[in-house]
Amino acid sequence: MNSRLLATTALRAAKIDQRIPPIAGTIFGVFLIISILGAILMDGKQPDALIGGWVVGWMLIGIYVLFALKVANQWEKAVVLRLGKFQGLRGPGLFWIVPLVDTIPTWIDHRVMVTPFAAQKTLTKDTVPVDVDAVLFWVVWDAEKAALEVENYQAAVDWAAQTALRDITGRMMLADILVGRSTIDQELQKIIDERTTPWGVTVQSVEIRDIVIPQDLEDAMSRQAQAERERQARVILGESEKQIAASFAEASQSYINNPTALHLRAMNMLFEGLKEKGALVIVPSSAVDTMNLGGMSGMVSLAQQNLPKEK
């Protein structure tokens, strides 16, 4: 009866402690089997008191191993308190504690942690409501401070990041937020790191994921950008027209006192227009008289008639 009660108590306590390593459970099972087999083999051969002592002894050894043997993973540190006072850090690997005297209130993870956080419906300096989403990369560099200086260091880091993001968003204009993400990242990292350093936590980087603005404002900004691009296109077109006009004015100076060059240019223009099949060129009568285009057009027509026909 005593052995059954002892085993049941040990198993219930094992369920409460979620960090009992498999090796401790295995050793406990081995001692439990040894005690049962020993009791069976000694049944009828030894006094009941001796059998009971045998079973209880092995059970006590198994229970001690079950609760005293701990294993910390490579990235973990176990915070050990002895009678409520900080005793030290244990791990990684295999270590022992004194049951009922030592407790492990928390296990500190030394890997880089990723915490998404957001500042929802925060007003910018120019009173525009925005939703800003960001990601925080941080790591615990001092497990003792993280366990003793703050109740829940993970929640504390999360809230510190959110309040810092709201503070920065409220001090900046919307245009600066949209174009200055790298600046916000650096400032956020500095502010959050100053708040979390006393807790044994350091911030490696902060990255803004998304900035959401009201749909009406987004449509207005889109129309503004489109109007600005149309204005730039019209300005560029006007500058092009001015350059073309200046080029024509400069070219006309070459034809003022050189009618031969002007006639050659006219002949070239007619030829370029008439060489296309089915082309029709309408020339003003004044141009025909002043540039002698009638004779030239006749020559061009004669030349086209003498061209070899395509098969």
Overview of this structure, please?
This protein has helices spanning 2-16, 22-42, 48-68, 143-148, 153-170, 174-179, 181-196, 215-252, 259-274, 285-291, 293-306, and strands spanning 69-72, 76-82, 85-90, 93-96, 102-109, 113-123, 129-140, 201-212. By secondary structure, the protein is α+β, with helices and mostly antiparallel strands. The chain is elongated. The N and C termini lie far apart (118 Å). The relative contact order is 0.06.
Task: List the total number of helices.
Answer: 11
Structure summary, number of beta strands: 8
User: What spatial order of strands do you see in the largest sheet?
Assistant: 3-2-5
User: What's the alpha carbon Rg, rounded to whole Å?
Assistant: 45 Å
Q: Give the rounded overall mean pLDDT.
A: 76
Beta percentage is 15-25%
Element-by-element helix/strand order: HHHEEEEEEEHHHHEHHHH
Bin the helical content: 55-70%
Unreliable stretches: 5-17
Shape type: elongated
Structural class: alpha+beta
Number of domains: 4
Distance between the termini: 118 Å
Please summarize the sheet with the most strands.
3 strands, antiparallel
